[in-house]
Automatic annotation (TrEMBL):
Pfam families (UniProt xref): MerR_1, TipAS
PROSITE patterns assigned: HTH_MERR_2
Domain HTH merR-type: residue ranges: 2-71
A GO MF term: DNA-binding transcription factor activity
Keyword ATP-binding: no
Residues forming coiled coils: none
Descriptive protein name: HTH-type transcriptional regulator SkgA
InterPro entries on file: DNA-bd_dom_put_sf, MerR-type_HTH_dom, MerR_fam, TipA-like_antibiotic-bd, TipAS_dom
Assigned keywords, A-Z: Activator, DNA-binding, Transcription, Transcription regulation
Highest rank taxon of the organism: Bacteria
CDD domains assigned to the protein according to its UniProt record, in alphabetical order: HTH_TipAL-Mta
Amino acid sequence: MAWSIADVVRMSGVTSRTLRHYDDIGLLPPAGIGSNGHRYYGEAELLRLQQILLMRELGVGLREIQAVLDSQADRVTVLREHQRRLMGERDRLDTLVRTIGRTIAELDDRKDDNGMTTINRPENLFEGFEHSSEMDAEVQERWPEAWEQSRQAVEGMTPETTEQWQREVTAQMIRMAEFMVAGTPADDPAVQAEVEAHYQGVCAFWTPNAEAYKGLGRTYVEEPAYRANFDKIAEGLAEYQREAMNVYADARLA
């Protein structure tokens, strides 16, 4: 049986743009192309896509994924390794659930005389969070020099600077969520000032032009691992961040 690209999009949640990109780089060619020019996928391709998505969920880059899939490793052995790592991720998410629950309890129960909340141990706010780097596999494919620049910057970070960077990223996402919840337009000067800070943060790793910065915004929305980090803060935040980044790119980077 063969499934159209629309079928695969519906079943997997992967965008057609991503499937075409996977085809372009040889990671997931379709089983065939019909006379109408549409891609069609068979069972083998669906299984391969499942493995790709599993490894993407685990933070593996596209080049590494291709190397694994092309190595002819036993599929069951590979799946067992994915299962082991996903169980570790489940434990991390359980920790995150407890973190959020503890924060809710403190916000509900602890009020000072002015009605403001107080937190006993601020470091507990961040237990269980996992922050992606500001680089996506698409950047590695399309802008290899930027990828290498980012890799060198990350390798130069100490545990202390990494922790500080993670806290700053989280704080920035929270500020953007506050703008979103308040209904502040993406082109509002205050929002754009926050995006400017975001762009400068990205430039510590690589320096995107307008196209690349917009691409990073799309990645926040379309890639599950990135979107999940935004959804931890507020549902819909990834789209709001992308919209604000598009405005900034058109106004400042074009």
